[in-house]
Fold this sequence. Notes:
This protein has about 90 residues and is of the alpha+beta class. It has three helices and four strands, in the order βαβαββα. A four-stranded mixed sheet has the order 2-1-3-4, with helices on both faces. It is globular and about 30 Å long. Keywords: Oxidoreductase.
Amino acid sequence: MSEMTTTATDQFTMYTTPWCGYCKRLKSQLAREGITGREVNIEEHPESAEFVMKVNGGNQTVPTVVFSDGAAMTNPSLAQVKKKLAELA
């Protein structure tokens, strides 16, 4: 399990694959903003891939971001992630 930067206050988990351009873009945008979360490579963790499929109507769509309140977003923008994190704060 690769992790971005993990702190005790992680508010989301981002499910990714190493080859996903959208994942790389969102990760770099989050890093620029100093926003940290947990990252799970669904290719290395089959149970995570199954979870992503359940959240996305049978599709392994990444990035899928799951927040501490259980809400999930598929391929969200940086603005959407920041808005949700502000709601959770």
